């Protein structure tokens, strides 16, 4: 997985709603983009905004940046902010597996997404922590 983190400059108070509306609109423009896993707007206690963008890979992120939709999105941000955002991107090296990222194949083999995920894990119930049990008898797909 590849993650980009963008820190936005201070949003003028009179543009705060416009900024949040722009972000929601931009999510709609990117929906269905190949390799895009998620895009979130975060607000810190000091009122500053950061975007967290998740992709399948660095190449999927690079391809998204070349899309016309991204150019249009960036143009829409210009009238709202007085400065440019600062962005960094990262490759995920170690991940914490979640129930949504774990799957069984119906042949007593289960696995969870993430570099730290242990093969052969079984979810004991929705939202529960995976335990090291066999997944024998599970249906194909979700445990």
Polypeptide structure, described:
- The chain has 143 residues and is of the alpha+beta class.
- The protein has 2 domains: 2-91, Alpha-Beta Plaits, CATH 3.30.70.100; 94-143, no CATH class.
- It is 23% helix and 23% strand.
- It has 3 helices and 6 strands; from the N terminus they run βαββααβββ.
- The chain has helices spanning 16-30, 58-65, 68-77; strands at 2-7, 36-43, 49-55, 86-91, 102-104, 110-112.
- The strands form 2 sheets. Strands 2-3-1-4 form a 4-stranded antiparallel β-sheet, covered by helices on one side. A two-stranded antiparallel sheet has the order 5-6.
- Helix 1 packs antiparallel against helix 3.
- The longest helix has 15 residues, at 16-30.
- The model is unreliable at 115-143 (pLDDT under 50).
CATH architecture of the largest domain: 2-Layer Sandwich
Number of discrete helical segments: 3
Q: Biggest sheet, open or closed, and with what strands and sense?
A: 4 strands, antiparallel
Q: What would the average pLDDT be, to the nearest integer?
A: 78
Global geometry: elongated
Rg over CA atoms, rounded to whole Å, is 19 Å
The first-to-last residue Cα distance is: 23 Å
| Range of helix content | 10-25%
Structural class, by secondary structure, is alpha+beta
